[in-house]
TrEMBL record:
It comes from the Bacteria. Residues 30-49 are annotated as: Disordered. The keyword Magnesium does not apply. Residues 1-20 form the signal peptide. Residues 328-513 form the Heparinase II/III-like C-terminal domain. Keywords: Lyase, Periplasm, Signal. This is Heparin-sulfate lyase N-terminal domain-containing protein.
Amino acid sequence: MPRRLTALLLSAVLPLGALAAATAMPAAARAPQRTPECQGDWLPSTPTSPDVMNGRLSFLDLPAVTVGKDVNWRMDPYRNRSWQMVFQSLRWMGRLVADYESTGKTDYLDRAVEIARDWVADNPYGGRTTAKYAWAEHPIALRAPALVCLSRYVKAGWLTSSLALHAKLLSDPKHYELGHNHGLDQDIGLLRIGCRYGNPKWKNLAVSRMVRSMTLDIDGQGALREQAPRYAIYVHDRLRVAVDTIKDCGMKVPAALASRWESLPRHISAATQPNGYMVPIGDGPADVQPAAFDHADATVQVFDAGYVFGRTAWGDPQSAYYSIRFGPALKFHGHEDHMGVTYYAQGRSILTEAGFHSYENTPYRRWTLSPEAHNVPVLVGRRFRGHTPTTLVRRSLDKERQSFTFTDRAYGVARTRSVLVSHHQDVMAVLDGGGGKLRNLWHLAPNLKVVSNAGGRVVVADGAWKASIVQLAMPSCRPVGGQRVVRGRTSPYQGWISPAYMRKEPADVIVSPVAGSLLTVVVPGTDRPDVTCSGRTLIVHTPAGPVTLRTSSSGTLS
């Protein structure tokens, strides 16, 4: 740590004559008071203070780990980077200080000082024995506010020097994550330090970067560009913290930042299914249930960031709902899911995604990222080219039915998918084609089981409720048989769903036969949907009445 930097920061806190004598203040030397640095929304769900005092740390819903009074900062009980990130962030130490302010229990503050001082002593920057993730960019960002909180009650050289180093690293553009939720956390951390010590350079840098970064991360439609809608909840929550911190600092909230924050709820609501859970797209678990957010009036929304979300009606758990992915190439928290669809109808999830398991670099994680873990067309015998964008080339939006056509060259030749959804008479139809033979995959929700499979018709059931998936070759409109149902396969992986973080369970996947062009029709609520054809016109007879579909020679549905 350069002495000049440390002295500069220290001088903002103490008179110059007191620098050499700076020590931790006794816990009883100052009556606790609730401060902006220690209270508010910055502190997420952490172990309770009694648990921390007992040395029991539970992160990410994993079983608690026991730590001693002298913490082993190199411990990694679950070989899990996310666990390491939370452990090294010291937010759980910050919980003690926040609760000290609320309860006046001095043993909480005393233990917080012990933990933080031990971390600083055991984890010098660049040290040979320093914990692997101690100085990774995200733990630095999340740890800074916790240390700022502690600094309200501790005047010690070791703490002030560590905060100066945190500010130096957070200011360094080489470490900055522009247009990403980590960048937002870095800005919040730097702003907290700058406000605490009255450093205008750090404060202004944090706010100016925040505006630029969030303008990149959230587009003008309010969609998060990180390719996993559940991260929009995180970014929205963290932007609230950022706005509060800017106000605490006596600074003006930039209008561009406020408008991006205010636009995110529409994206979150659009990505939330009628059952209240977010559709599991990208690195988004299936168990994310956001609070109620404002939503747009429109029941069908197309986001240029690469999402189509549609529903029959707002506020109706029985509403039909669907999602379709397209747009820019893979980045951040996205999966190779372009052209992937999900479908929810009659109070049930029917077509879903394999979902998000964890960030660990395992064969299973790599499979969840692949096209084969999504409801997509796969061109047979051709190499998949990752990071390929997909274009929405046609759309038709009516109240009762919508259709969309997409194209890309993810397999080196043209691949097309046209999707039509009919509401009230619930039907989803998907027409796949392209420059070669293809097959498609249909991942079923775990509560559904295949009960019959014959003649190009697969029937799935949830108790007495049934739905049918019918496949036809086009343009002949003949039934295509030979569908395989895969469940719980591990070599290679197929037939799995991750219902929550670090969990997976077997689930049926329908793998179609190979064809030049495939029309797949999903009909909820029946095991006997009649499908009649006349040229390129099809009539699907549903329990609620007939639905007429038309296919074109160019591969579109209407």
